[in-house]
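FORM 12-B: Structure-to-Sequence Request
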């Protein structure tokens, strides 16, 4: 069964001039997890932040769990840097590594929880050989690389397919969805089986973080 639902604001949409304050504000407003998007202008056509920014947030006093979403290729080299900086989850894309099993093992051996992210064009069957190594599965409901994109409705089919696989396990694995999540579609994502909801512009672009998070939580129980 799906776990207790978590709201995960993506810092990609935050005001980077006030990043520590922004993260403090969304956590005070009721967020459960901080989603930390890392892009390299190689695997995806954008460039964002590195481990020093995460380390700075931890130094600022952020103690909430952080999911570092690595949209980076090759990925293995930088995994340890983010774990050392304070990542709780490290999520990678199968297309960003030659050896998915090795990369997930590297994350776990480093002391973090391992996540695998599925793009809209990625088959969910990529999960099957490594289900024993994942602590989180991230279904992308947009193509990775930019914030503020429109939700792809067919991504809910992938959520359902992943949910079926996770329900057959004897341990807890989070099922996260990321991309275009808003108050008016988060309920459908929950119904499909997601339990962790990344929202960037829908939260950081709103006038009242607490009201937006509360409205989202009302849709997911």
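FORM 12-B RESPONSE
SEQUENCE OUT:
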């Amino acid at each position: 069964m799906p776990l207790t639902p978590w709201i995960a604001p993506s810092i990609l949409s935050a005001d980077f001039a006030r990043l520590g304050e922004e993260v403090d504000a969304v956590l005070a407003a009721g967020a459960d997890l901080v989603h930390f998007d890392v892009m390299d202008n190689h695997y995806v056509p954008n460039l964002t932040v590195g481990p020093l920014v995460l380390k700075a947030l931890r130094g600022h006093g952020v103690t909430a769990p952080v999911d570092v979403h690595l949209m980076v290729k090759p990925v293995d080299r930088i995994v340890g840097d983010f774990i050392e900086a304070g990542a709780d989850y490290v999520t990678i894309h199968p297309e960003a590594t030659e050896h998915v099993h090795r990369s997930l093992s590297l994350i776990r051996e480093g002391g973090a929880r391992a996540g695998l992210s599925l793009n809209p064009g990625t088959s969910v069957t990529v999960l099957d050989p490594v289900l024993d190594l994942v602590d989180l599965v991230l279904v992308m409901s947009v193509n990775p690389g930019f914030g503020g994109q429109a939700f792809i409705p067919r991504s809910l089919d992938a959520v359902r397919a992943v949910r079926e696989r996770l329900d057959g396990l004897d341990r807890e694995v989070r099922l996260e969805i990321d991309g275009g999540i808003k108050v008016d579609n988060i309920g459908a994502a929950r119904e499909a089986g997601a339990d962790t909801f990344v929202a960037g512009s829908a939260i950081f672009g709103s006038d009242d973080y607490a009201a937006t998070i509360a409205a989202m939580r009302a849709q997911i129980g």
